Amino acid sequence: MSGIGWHIFTFSALGVALLLLFYRTVRLVRLPLHLRWELAPIPHEKGKSRYGGSYLEEYEWWRHPHRKSFFGPIFYMAQEILLLRAIWRHNRGLWPLTFALHTGIYLIILMLALQALNAILAATGVPPAVLGTFRAIAAVLAAAGYLLGAVGAAGLILKRALDADLRPFSSVARYVNLAFLLAVFVSGIYAFFTVADFSAEVSLFIKGLFSGDAATGLSAPLAAHAIILILFALYLPFTGMIHFVAKYFTYHEIRWNDTPLDKEMEGKLGRLMGQPVTWSAAHAGADRPKSWTETAAGEGHEKAGS
Amino acid sequence: MKKPGLKLNDISRNAAEPLTEINLDELTPLPPPYDKIEEQPGFKRLTEDQAERLVHNLDGVVSTAALPEPQDKEEEEKYVGQFLSGMKKLLSKENNWTFLQPLLLSLDYCAQCQTCNDACPIYLASGRNDLYRPTYRSEVFRRLVEKYARPLGRLRARLSGDDIELNWATVSRLYELSYRCNLCRRCAQSCPMGVDNALLTRELRKLFSQELGWAPKELHEKGTVLQLAVGSPTGLRPDVAKDNLQFLDEDFSEATGLDIHTPWDKKGADVLLIHSAGDIISFPESPISFSVICNAAGISWTLSSEIGGYDGVNYGLFYDDVQLARVARCHAEIARDLGVKKIVMGECGHQHKAFMTVADRTLTGDLNIPRESSMTFLENIVFGGKIKFDPAKNDFPVTLHDPCNVVRNLGIVEPQRRILRYLCPQFREMTPHGVDNYCCGGGGGLSVMSDVNFTDWKVHVAGRMKFQQVLAAFADRPGPEVKKYLCAPCLNCKLQFRDIFEYYGVKEKSGIIAGGLAELIVNAMTGLKKPFISWEDPA
Q: How many domains does chain B contain in total?
C-alpha cells in the first residue's frame, strides 16, 4: 500500500469506528430515564459500601445529606477493569484466560499510546536517547501484550468449545470476535519476531501518519498486522465488545443510580408519562389509547385478559 | 449429578413433553435429619386429569397459575403473535420507558461467560440443572429478540445457527420458566458486565402480563386487582381488617398484661404504618408488636382502613409496571389524604423495594411523601431510651435471614443487626449473609403461589440453599430441646419458611420457629407478664 493509501485507510477506518462508537454511546445516553433499580453494594456510599449499606440505613434519611465517596466508584471500577474483579470472585476458572486476553489488549493500547507520544516528542526535538528508551519500553509492552492476548484469545476459544458449561451458550458471534482478536495478536507476534526492529518501524509508521509523510511504508509482516488491527477497530463498534462503554451505564446508571426523585426528574417524567401506551391486556388500558399517567391512575380491576 | 446438556433450541421442540423433571436424589443434599429422601413426602406428580388440562411442558411443575391447554392450533398461533407484538412493545420508548435502558443493556452486553450461574440458589439446589441456569431463559429471550425484533434478524439467525423458533412450545415454556426465578438478583451482583437476568425475567413476566394478560392468579386477579378493588390480596375488607386487629389488640392485651391499642385513620399523625395484611392473618404477633412498640415509645402513628391502605404488599413489583404504579399511588394517596409526615414500611421486603425505590419515580408532585424502612424506624426506637429492655429474655439462639428486597436491593443491612446484637445474646450470622445472602426461595412472588405441585418445588428447590443455611447457623445446637428463632423481617419470607418448616417438620426435629424482628423487641421489653414469643402452638 502506498503512503497516501495508508493515510486514507487508517484515518477513514478509525474515523468510522469512532463515529459508530459515538453513535452507539449517544443512543444509550438518550434512552429515557428509567425507574430505580439499584443493587448493593454501591461503592459511593461513604462508610457503608464495605458491607453493602446505603443511605436508606439512616433514620429519616431525607433529613441527612447523602454522603458520597468520590474515590469509591473509581477504586471499584479500577479493580474491575484492570483485575477483572467480578470474574476473580465468582468464576475463578475463567479468570486466567480472560485476564490474559484483557491485559494483552491493555498492553497493546499502552504500546500504541507510547508510540504516539514518541512521535509527538520526536517532532518537538526531544533527545534521541529518550525516544530510544520509549521505543524499548514499547517493544516490551508489545511482546508481552501480543503473547498474553494470543494465549487468552486462543484459550477462550478452546474453553468455549470444550467446556460443557460454556459451549451451549456461546454464539457464533462470540467465536468470531475471539478469532478476530486472535488474528490481531498472532499477526502482531509474527511481525514482532520477523521485522528487524519492530518498535522502530511502528514508531516510524505512526510518525508518518501524524506528519503527513506520504512516503511512509511498512514491511509486509507489519503491514499485515496493521491492516488486521485497523479492520478490528472498524469491526469493534458493531459488536458487544464495546462493553467498556456499556459498563458505565450498567454500573453508574443502573446498579449505582440511587438518586431519589427530584425536580429535574419530575420534568422528564412528566413528558415520559404523557406518552401513549398501547399494551393489549385488558387491565393495561387496551380499550382505548391512554397516556402512561392515565393508565397508571386507572382502577386496575378490569378483568384480566385471559 | 448433572443432567445431560439441555440445548437452547430445545425450548421450541416437542411442546407436549416436559424439558426436564425434578428428582429428589439429584438435588443438592440436606444435612441430617433431613437427608433421608425416603422419609420425605416426595414430589407430587400431576394427575391424569391435571396433565390433560394444564400446560406442563417445562419441568412437570405447575401452580394454580398454570395455563390451560389451548383448544387448537389457531389459538396457539394467536398467543405466538401476541408474544411477538409484546416483545416489540417492550423495546419501545413509549410503552416501556420504565425499564428500557436496563433491558437493552442486559440484552445486548451479556458476555456469555456463565459467571452468574453459581450465584443462583435455584440452579445450585437443583443439582445444576441446565433449565434453571439464570442464563437459560435470558439467552433464549435474547436470541428471540435478535431474530424477531431486530433488522435482518431472521437472516442472521439462519446464518449463525443461533436459531430458536418462536412457537407455542417456546412461548408457553418461557411463561412458566419466568416463574422459576426469585428475582433475588444474586446473579446480577456477580455479573462483570452488570447484566441483570432477574430484570430480564421480570421483563418477560411483564410482556406476558401487559400484552397477553397472562399472570399467576395469585399475583394478578387475586393479587393486585383484588387489592385495588377490595383492599388486600388476602381478601380482607377494610372493616374486617379493622375488626380483626381490634380483636387481636384485646387478645394480646389479656395475654401480655399490656394495654394494646392500635390507632386507625388518625389524621395528622406523624407516621402512617403500612403492614402486610397477611401478617394480620398469618403472623398476628407482628402487627401487635408494632402497636406495643409504637405506643410504648410515644409515637404519633396510625394505620389506615382505606382500600389498600392496610396492606403494603405490591405484587406489581413482580410482574407488571402498570399494577406496580397503581398500587404505589394508592398507598401514597392515602398517606397524602391523612396528612402524615412519613410512611413506614411494615416488615415486608418487596413492599420496601416497590414503595421506597422502584416506584419512587412514579410518585411525583404531592405523592412524593417521605418513606422509611421499619428497620431504621425500629432501631431509632430501640436505642432511643424510651423503652426498657432486658436482653436476657431473648437468651436463645437467634439468626437473621436477610430479605433480598431489604438488603441486596436497598442496602439496609446494619440497623436490624444492631438491634439483634443488643437484644439477643445468642445472635449468630448465617453464611453467607448481608448483601450476599441467599433468597428464602419465596422471592419474586413465588411465596404466595401454591399447588398443584408448586409448593413441592418451592420447598425442595427454591428454598433449599436457604434451608441449608438456617440449619448450619444452628449446627451447634441442632436438637429440638434447644428452642431457636429465625428472624425473618418479611411476610413473604416467613410464609416460605412456614411452608419449608411444615414440610420437613422443622419445629419438631430442630426446634426452630420463624418470626419477625418486632416480636424479638417486644419479647425483650421489661414489664411483660410472660414471654411474648412462644414455641408452643396457639391453643
A: 3
